[in-house]
Amino acid sequence: MPGIAQYSYKQHIKYADKSYEQGNYVEAMIHYDKAYQIGEYLDEESIFRYGESALNTFSLGVAQTQFENYLDIDSTVYSHLASYNLARISHLQGNYAEAILNYNIYLSEYEDAEPDITRDVYFLTRQADWALKADSEDEIDTIYPSSGMINTPYSENAPFVMDDSIYYSSLRFSIPSDKLRRYRSRLFKNEKQITIEGAREENLLSNLSISDDGSFTIFSICDYDETYNIRCALYYGALDSIGNINGIKKLPEIINVDSTNTSQPNIRFNDPDYTLFFSSDRSGGKGQRDIWKSTFTKELEFTEPENISYINTEKDEVSPFFHENSEQLYFSSNGHNGFGGYDIYKIRYTETDSSSIRNLGNKINSPLNDVDPFVNTSSSEIYLASNRPGSKYLEDSYQTCCFDIFKAEIKDCEIDLIAEFYDSFDDTELAEVSVQILDKTNDEIVFNELVMGPEMEIQLDCDKEYELIALKRGYQDLNYPLEDLKPIYGQVNEVKRKIFMDPSDYNLSVEVFDEEETDLALTNTELTLMNLDTGEEKKLSNGESNLYNFEILPKTKYRIIANKRAYDQKIIDFNSGVGEPDVEKTIFLKKTEIVQVTKVSLKNAIPVQLYFDNDEPDPKTRGTYSSQNYTQTFYRYYDRKEKFKQVYSSRFSRNDKDGAVYQIEELFEDQIKAGFEKYEKFKNQLLVVLEAGQKVNIYLRGYASPVHEDDYNIALGKRRVDSIRKEFDEWRDGVFLPYLNSGQLIVTERSFGEETAPPGISDDPGNPNKSIFSPEASIERRVEIDEINFNEN
Questions:
Q1: How far apart are CA 597 and CA 768, in angstroms?
Q2: What is the mean pLDDT of residues 411-430?
Q3: 236-250, 691-705, 725-739: least confidently modelled range
Q4: For 328-347, how does the pLDDT look when each residue is reduced to its tens digit (9 = 90+)?
Q5: The model's pTM
Q6: CA-based torsion, 444, 447, 449, 454: positive or negative
Q7: How far is residue 351 from each of residues 308, 371, 378, measured CA to CA in Å?
Q8: Which of 19, 99, 211, 256 is disulfide-compatible with 233, CB 3.0–4.6 A?
Q9: Between β-strands 381-386 and 557-563, what pairing exists: parallel, antiparallel or unpaired?
Q10: Are 92 and 340 in contact (CB under 8 A)?
């Protein structure tokens, strides 16, 4: 092939166009420039392609000139692209205000031209505005190209430092006999090229990451397609004592998915396993290239890769690096707010919120591309690759074409934390707080003291994650993350934090007793708790217990109002205070005068006599339990009054019939009905006494007329007593049941049968008008409440 200088104008344009289409932008630039020098003219298409070739090699000055020339031509096809590229060039040169102006010009003229470009312009406008306003402080003291013979006019990237040696990749070697005159990269340790057994001559080798014990590495092997497009995959290799790599093998398909680009590995040791971080354009991501992670064993068994979604964007995230000591994940991206091209970011690995991602600042990051971060163990140095001004180049046109390795010294940084403790309820200062500070990067307690005053002071390192733990009696335990401290490197940063502690969940316990019988617990009391500061009320009725619990606030005035039937209302005011979360109160209630009167009335009401019809309840049985309560038997019995009058009076002569009828009337009204009414009053008065907390024992005695034999009458008497028991169970929907079940009300049975029936009462069932219907026999069919006892203990 003749030398380039012998080409004609047309030949240069031909070779320039071919190189442009192949993606060989350096070669395209050279030929477009030679064609211009020969003819002092380029056509419209060539000017645009010349500008794009220059932009793709980051020859920004040349690109700017060509796009300006292109826009001077009337009716150009790619005016919107030229306008867009000029705005990008201003952005990459760090002229953010000019870039914003140019982006706005594009939107005013070409917003509807191409939706994808318009969307990108809006994003880049926001990014330039962020860069224009960004705080210039960062953690870097100085940054300079790495020393020695590492950097060349070609590209060096992917630094990795271990045991005072720097490993990196250099794209400085031409591929022998390659018609496209492409270059290949090789791995180096310091200035010496690493031998990789099994690598082919045309491979591009880069992005070496070494295991913690130095025994193996994972790195990228890449190849060109038929043009200048590159596709990479990850490989494993063993490291020998001098740093050469042998026994290489391609990682399995779970990592290297077919037809995808997978590169830039970083190894984290998890003991006993490892985590592999890498960048890939595999499907399932959020953007073009995303950062993924996979756990693997020493036998190279990998888990399904997980997309680290909270750091990935619609654009590119590349070159992950995990720093073990600080647990920070570093990476490069052009999809977050930054200063131009790719910037370097970090996020604490335990965070999962993209808002915690931090741009490393405008010394680490330039308006151009800054990638491949590596931080040493002590966090005092950071290495990176950048094509910023200051990197080496072959000709002036290519001042920012190629990457060099840079080294930055991280400033000393210390945080002087001043913490003050306050009560969250009323903002008062707190003293005697037990404080621990946990370094979450290694779970180490770095501070553990009782802080006597309301303020404490401690010095903390900048690049770690801390949590403050505060304990104090009467307050809830507090775990307070020390976040968003925003230290400025190179100085002592005084950070003040007001830390508010919530009082414990305060509880009020109230017990209620009788004032006279002080060990008599009073149930079924209604307590109202009133917050005297807010007027809020809470009510409790606790049924079978005399203990009541309320959640209350500290340092608050309260009023307890106690109401119980048969007792006078009681009111107690108190202040819950602070420091003693369990507040206990005892209330003694005084019986109302009516209770005392009712107790006397109940005793005077004895006996209460309750009458039954013959062989009732449940006639002609020998059972001892009744299927009816007394009220049910009474109404049926009372309804038979006229029957009793008819049968009983039938034995008398006409002159005596009226007297017999009157006797029955008097029996039913003055004995049977009066007994029932007295019983109703008795139950109502009994309930008053029980509700007052009084323990009551009543005694029942059953009677029977002698019309049946003794054993039958005994069973009948038991059924009659059981009907009274049933009455106590069922009256007013079982109002007595709680007292019966608790033993506060006891019903005691006495004798049964006809033993107490007076002589002369007929026992002849064949003469019912005497043995059944006579007043004398009827009086004997009864149950008496013949005694009531109040337990005064």
A1: 45
A2: 88
A3: 691-705
A4: 999 999 999 999 999 999 99
A5: 0.60
A6: negative
A7: 11, 22, 22
A8: 256
A9: unpaired
A10: yes
Q: What does each C-alpha distance from 487 to 201, 461, 494, 582, 719 come to in angstroms?
A: 49, 10, 9, 43, 91
Whole-angstrom distance, CA of residue 142 vs CA of residue 390: 14
Burial of 341 (0-12, 13-18, 19+ CB in 10 A): buried
What's the pLDDT tens digit per position in 54-87?
Answer: 999 999 999 999 999 999 987 678 999 999 999 9
Which amino acid is residue 645, in one-letter code?
Answer: K
Q: How far is CA 653 from the centre of its chain?
A: 97
For residue 751, what pLDDT is reported? 60
Cβ neighbours of residue 202 closer than 8 Å, sequence gap 6 or more: 175, 178, 184, 223, 224
The tokens of 784 are what?
């008496």
Three-class SS of residue 326? coil
Whether 793 shows a pLDDT value over 50: the answer reads no
Cα–Cα distance measured from residue 617 to residue 720, given in angstroms and rounded to the nearest whole number: 7
DSSP H/E element including 470: strand 466-471
CA distance 669 to 659: 15
pLDDT above 50 for 52: yes
Give Cα 511 to chain centroid, integer Å. 38
The whole-number pLDDT of residue 761 equals 65
Q: List, in order, residues 6 or more apart from 479 with CB less than 8 Å away.
A: 467, 468, 469
Query: One-letter amino acid identity for 534?
Result: T
Contact (CB, 8 A) for 46 and 13 = yes
- In single-letter form, the type of residue at position 709 comes to E
For residues 21 and 226, is the Cβ–Cβ distance under 8 A? no
Helix (H, G, I), strand (E, B) or coil at 201: coil
Residues 6+ apart with CB under 8 A from 510: 527, 547, 548, 549, 550, 560, 584, 585, 586, 587
pLDDT of residue 1: 37
Output Rg (C-alpha) for the chain, integer angstroms.
50
